Amino acid sequence: MKMIINLHNGMSDMSALHIQNLSKKFGQQNAVYDTSWQAKRGEIVCLLGHSGCGKTTMLRLIAGLESPSAGQIMFGDRILWSNTHHVAAEHRNIGLVFQDYALFPHLNVFENIKFGLNHFKREQQKQIADDVLKHVSLSQHATKYPHMLSGGEQQRIALARALAPKPDVLLMDEPFSNLDRRLRDRIRQDTLSILRDLGTTTIIVTHDPEEALHIADQIILMHEGQIIQSGTPQQLYETPNSLFAAEYFSAINQIPCVVNHNVLKSACGQLEFKSINPEQRVDQSTSPNANYLYCFRPYHVTLSVEPQNQDSIPVTVTSSDYLGHQMLVKVQIHSTSYIIHAQGIFHCPTHVGQALFMCIQPQQSFIFAKDSATP
Ligand code: ATP
């Protein structure tokens, strides 16, 4: 076990961040609106969403850099903000890592890390800074200044500085977005293993769905200040609650369909309703015969020269793109104008004009009401 083990903050398993009905208005605009969610102790939570959806505002509210318009923020049974109770940012015991790392250029690495440790005794400060530097494997750079470090090293120093005061919660705003792809994968992996090792409750803002799927225990998907869906990466990817959530994680084929008497009819043929992903079945009792979209990811389409079963659909290839490890093949359903995207490794000819048969995995498909992008 590494020396840094003394960075554990000793909070009980009960401790967690509780966000209750939190809102923030800027003028007339709701940057965050009536959001409620929780982070368990030691959990890595990703706030995910497009630019302007309110992720950074949420982070700043938790940090105490903005005041909510309404709601409550708690850590365990400690109220950080409510209508009647406000804990100042410097007393929240929350660590922050910014996108640009915000290291002090005039302080060396060691001094940067010691900066937030004023409330510890002098000898403790040195011990903590030494420990945390070891943990991010940068002890040999202690006397260097930020401009003498690579982007990845600066990121790890920023992480070390935020972790040194033993925060109850670590907040990271797009921490990997300034790194090039290869470096990003490695630094992200290193960061994750440090956070998991320490059991630090961490909230990470990102707009990158792959990153969120890769690193999060829990994803909070936001849109226009509100939470669209929260859950594990699998829950969001495999059982999205809306077209918005489904589309956030990959391109989605969308075919208009009607559902009636337990049968789904679309240009992809007829399908027994019960074969669809059970989480995705619409309530027919409230809207019989209504129009829906039959949706499926390009990865859940298979192509073959011969029909694979009675549900195989005749198609013709309209384009075929080599992606290295996969192909993206677009096919047109016979006698319709619908173009379906199929992505994967296909063991059949995929040149333009090739006649093929397509199969869709019903268990991996979704059905959403038309004209309702969000739940
Ligand atoms: P990005 O990914 O681009 O950083 P975001 O999801 O983090 O976006 P926020 O920065 O939280 O979004 O902004 C949410 C909304 O609130 C935006 O429309 C933004 O313009 C607005 N906003 C944020 N801060 C302020 C402010 N200080 N004053 C006025 N409006 C603000």
UniProtKB/TrEMBL annotation:
Report any Pfam family annotated for this entry. Answer: ABC_tran
Q: Name one GO biological process term.
A: quaternary ammonium group transport
Quick check: keyword ATP-binding in the entry? yes
Q: Output the superkingdom of the source species.
A: Bacteria
- InterPro entries this protein is in? AAA+_ATPase (IPR003593), ABC_SmlMolc_Importer (IPR050093), ABC_transporter-like_ATP-bd (IPR003439), ABC_transporter-like_CS (IPR017871), ABC_transpr_FbpC (IPR015853), Mo/tungstate-bd_C_term_dom (IPR008995), P-loop_NTPase (IPR027417)
**GO MF:** ABC-type ferric iron transporter activity; ATP binding; ATP hydrolysis activity
Query: Which keywords does UniProt give here?
Result: ATP-binding, Cell membrane, Ion transport, Iron, Iron transport, Membrane, Nucleotide-binding, Transport
- Gene3D superfamilies registered for this protein in UniProt: P-loop containing nucleotide triphosphate hydrolases (3.40.50.300)
Which parts of the sequence belong to the ABC transporter domain? 17-249
- Cellular component annotations (GO), alphabetically ordered: membrane
Q: Which PANTHER family match?
A: SPERMIDINE/PUTRESCINE IMPORT ATP-BINDING PROTEIN POTA, SPERMIDINE_PUTRESCINE IMPORT ATP-BINDING PROTEIN POTA
Q: What is this protein called?
A: Iron(III) transport system ATP-binding protein
UniProt organism field: Acinetobacter boissieri
